[in-house]
Specification:
The relative contact order is 0.18. It is built from 4 helices and 5 strands; from the N terminus they run ββαβαβαβα. With 111 residues, the chain is α/β, with parallel strands linked by helices. The protein has one domain: 2-Layer Sandwich (Transcription Regulator spoIIAA), CATH 3.30.750.
């Protein structure tokens, strides 16, 4: 599992999640986002194009991250959810909490 953060030319910090977002690595993602917020980042995109699975603790981490970003006056968007992950977000009603785009390019255009 790897998290890769890079700055898009538009000024958005893109965090790519590779593999799975599960109990064993959710704190690493939270720390990555917190570090970005501490460095003044306010436009954040988490790209799940290379992610196959998110467990309940991963979903909880995303909710926590979303709350933190909003408290800091930021904008968080998600992209690249595969069909199973999109269904998971719909079933848990988290699709109403997050701005979700089909791919990173579409999400970046929305900032």
């Amino acid at each position: 599992m790897a998290f890769t953060a890079s700055r898009h030319p538009s000024g958005v910090l893109v965090v790519e999640v590779e593999g799975q977002l599960i109990v064993g690595n959710r704190q690493e993602l939270k720390a990555t986002i917190q570090q970005a917020l501490d460095h003044g980042e306010r436009k954040l995109l988490i790209d799940f194009a290379k992610t196959g699975y998110i467990d309940s603790s991963g979903l909880g981490a995303l909710v926590s991250i979303s709350k933190k970003v909003r408290e800091e006056g930021g904008d968080l968007r998600l992209s690249g959810l595969n069909e199973d992950l999109r269904s998971l977000f719909e079933l848990t009603k988290l699709d109403t909490l997050f701005a979700i785009s089909d791919d990173a390019a579409q999400a970046l255009a929305g900032f």
